[in-house]
From TrEMBL:
<protein>
    <submittedName>
        <fullName>Uncharacterized protein</fullName>
    </submittedName>
</protein>
Length: 230
């Protein structure tokens, strides 16, 4: 039997309560039956069993990671774990500590994790801060633009003293921040190629992300404008 999220049950119950003028109890029973359960109590029992089973499986996989001696097998266990369960950055760092002596395993495990998405979100949010936007606007004509979308690539991961370091490159798309003067719209500067740069980020044992250094640049016509900051 496929379990569904409690939010789906709740949403369906609201719909049925309104459509059929049911009591809340009746609506939840009807919603549970809609998804294949006998009633709402049956749904809750199945949900609890599934959660216990998942917790047990998670605990077993963690034990396998920590106890396994063969590095290749340990790596497979770790990748399986991070792909099967939603884990925090702190939990990921704890797992990576099991591979202190294998740079290749750290790279492999990190590539299979959600760190790329975490880094992209962090960098984009940083460009929206006062400090980040001021750095962006130091380049020609950028006072009219804000960061819209960022993609990172060529990520390299290393673990030193329980701190994860991430080096990589990025491309940054811009969008207009506000209305610009009409006479500027035909200038070639406003048909922008994505900006680009590189960065180094560290994630400490408290799962805090910090930009260690970064650069930013862009190509306008045949000229490349670039600067290094932080």
């Amino acid at each position: 039997m496929t379990i569904v999220s409690p939010s789906y049950i709740k949403q369906k119950a609201r719909q049925l309560k309104k459509e059929k003028s049911l009591s809340q109890h009746q609506a939840y029973d009807e919603a549970a039956r809609y998804f294949g359960f006998h009633n709402y109590k049956h749904y809750l029992n199945v949900l609890e069993d599934k959660q216990k089973q998942a917790a047990s499986t998670k605990e077993t996989l963690l034990k396998n990671i920590y106890s396994e001696k063969d590095i290749s097998t340990k790596e497979r266990f770790a990748i399986s774990f991070i792909q099967d369960f939603k884990i925090s950055i702190g939990e990921l760092l704890d797992i990576l500590k099991q591979f202190q002596d294998s740079a290749a395993a750290i790279q492999s495990v990190c590539e299979k994790s959600n760190l790329k998405d975490v880094v992209q979100t962090f960098l984009l949010n940083d460009f929206h801060t006062e400090e980040g936007s001021s750095e962006l606007q130091n380049l020609p004509f950028n006072q009219y633009f804000i960061a819209k979308e960022i993609s990172v690539k060529n990520l390299q991961y290393s673990l030193e003293n329980d701190v994860l370091y991430i080096d990589g490159d990025y491309d940054l798309k811009l969008e207009f921040e506000c209305e610009i003067p009409e006479e500027y719209k035909d200038l070639p500067h406003f048909y922008r190629e994505p900006m680009f740069g590189d960065f180094e980020i560290k994630i400490d044992e408290d799962a805090k992300l910090t930009i260690m250094n970064s650069s930013i640049g862009e190509k306008i016509g045949d000229r490349i404008y670039a600067e290094i900051f932080r």
